[in-house]
Amino acid sequence: MTPDPVAAAPTRSDPSGELVHAAARIAASVETVIEGKPDVVRTALTVMLAGGHLLIEDVPGVGKTMLAKTLARSLDCTVRRIQFTPDLLPGDVTGVSVFNQETRHFEFRPGAVFANIVLGDEINRASPKTQSALLECMEERQVTVDGSTYELASPFMVIATQNPVEMEGTYPLPEAQRDRFMARVSMGYPDNRAELDMLAEHAAVNPLDAVTPVADAALLGRLVDVVRSIHVAPAVRQYAVDLAHATREHPDVRLGASPRATLHLVRAAKAAAALDDRDHVLPDDLQALAPAVLAHRLILNADAQIAGRTTESLVADVLRRVPVPVDARA
Fold it and tell me: In order of start, what are the domains of the chain with their CATH numbers?
């Protein structure tokens, strides 16, 4: 009899081992569908374990939605999908109050955000008004409708996909919305080998049909708690602050990284350390995650945009300029 992968997890007496084993199972499950993108899968796992939200941005057809659906299907928890379209209303996302003729009272009907994992497909095809319906949900894990506040499920994660703003029929995400996503990843085109394998294995069947849950919501909640306990030395915290300040003072920037960005960078670094089975964060963790965590929040000034510079190159410049701390474990 095949053992239950959830039940087979290590006991809570070894929390770091539990996290590493669970993360390996989830990554292996996702990579049965998303081939040749281990770095993207790792970043997605890092964001999940850090308790953040993930934005997947790239051109159509490279597997953005497939990554989000596979990650969600690998977890035995509540999952809801929202297809963002120009006619989508905020109430479709958060829920609405409906008058009950029998009771003569208004009753709240929950929207699609009332789930552990919320898949927002092509989020920037909806109007900024509808996109903003997620602001309270993503930051405060609650929804306020008609003066009443409703708590969301725990754990709670939004995985959103979007096409580049140059694509037809898209709206740019508001700055406040982008700032609530812990990290942004791009799928990129697969290499020749991965695309050949995809044609051989996925052309006749839907690869999602073979994906089964390898962890549940309770386990994910425990793993998030383990990540929060990872040690961050004062020097490493100062390094994170220095990186954020450097983006704000850079001559090419109109809007730099927010304090929330600094917090997200440290949280993501904790998750990266836990995935490497370490009990402390290294400056290398911050450096590896800075492009994914910081770049999508920055806005270049007009001169930098005309010169063809990118926020990714700006983050790389900041990483070169800011001194790296020597003592990272104290």
Answer: 15-225 (3.40.50.300), 230-321 (1.10.8.80)
Pairing of strands 215-216, 75-76: parallel
H or E segment at 100?
strand 95-100
Residues 102-112: tens digit of each pLDDT: 888 888 889 88
The yes-or-no verdict on residue 87 having pLDDT over 50 is yes
Closest to 67 in 3D by CA, of 89, 83, 44, 96: 44
SS (H, E, C) 191-223: CHHHHHHHHHHHCCCCHHHHCCCCEEHHHHHHH
Contact 42, 303 (CB under 8 A): no
Tens of pLDDT, residue by residue over 118-129, are 998 888 888 888
Taking the whole predicted model, whether its pTM rises above 0.70 is answered as: yes
Indicate the helix (H) or strand (E) that contains 279. none
